[in-house]
Amino acid sequence: MNGLPIIDLEGFPTDSGRRLEIATALDEAFSGSGFCQIVNHGVSAAIRADAFSASAAFHALPDAEKLKISMNDAHRGYMIPRSSLIVTSSVDKVTRPNHSESFMMMHPVSEDSPAFGQPLQGENQWPTALPQFREKVEAYYAALESAARNMATLMATALGAEPDFFGPYFNDPTVYLRMLHYPPVPEDTPADQFGSAPHTDYGFITLLAQDDIGGLQVRLRDGSWLDVPVIEDAFVVNVADMLSHWSGGRWPSTPHRVLNNRAGRDRYSIAFFFDPSMEAEVMPIDGVSELQDRTPIHHGDYVMERLNKNYAYRKGK
Fold first, then answer.
1. CB-based contacts of 220, cutoff 8 Å, min separation 6
2. String of b and e for 46-80 (b: at least 16 CB within 10 Å)?
3. 259: DSSP letter
4. Bridge partners of residue 175, in order along the sequence
5. DSSP of 87-118, one letter per residue?
6. Mean pLDDT within 279-292
7. DSSP letter (8 states) at residue 311
């Protein structure tokens, strides 16, 4: 395999005739590796560029400024370097924390919401030193949520369900927008020091925007690692654990990792994790796979168990 399948979304959703054609291509891609890249997705290059410039500006702030919005109990804010150790990896025993730092925004939750204060339901935090940061990030969030909902329609079709099958599970979605900075590392850095250690994503789908540095790798079925090429303005899309279960295992939730650059260059990426409501009960769609496990999975319980194990600030939660 020379790269991930590239799926062209040109014409969707305005051209309903394109739905089945694109869905068929998605099913083929996800059945193979659980990954693809999408182009002509409707997210403007300007909104994306603004988000990357906002991320670079945030990560360039003095540590004291970033630490003012350290991660809160609702999983929002600044995630300091080396505070994530992927102990739930399914393909490796990880011993070194990830060499990265992040800004995390999640779905907005107002203080008068009945859910406020429940797991992952709280206030976003914003750096006061960057007045335009919030506006740029929220514009990107809105554009990616629209793209993710379009993808959900296509994926329902690909799995033989009605196009709106996933809709009720996303009335109150669990959404993470993570702006990542991977500092470069020396040439003699140990091979098991990763920007992001081998892992699978917990929820539904991830839409990843990456810069031109590279470093993302996907684990193939034979155990080898595929370098994911950088395609300008494309999004890397992958199946996460909940969607894999919905597909009855037809679509794998594939391990992936990030290598820090060893040539002195910083890497930036923006991951948009679009997941169902915390109360969603996930069971395979009828008839989608002969190998399906019919055991229901409660999304909220599943994700909290993993967050509590993998993130230093959550130890003892």
1. 1, 33, 226
2. eebebbbebbeebbebeeeebeebebeebbbbbbe
3. P
4. 274
5. TT-SS----S--S-EEEEEE----TTSTTTTS
6. 84
7. B
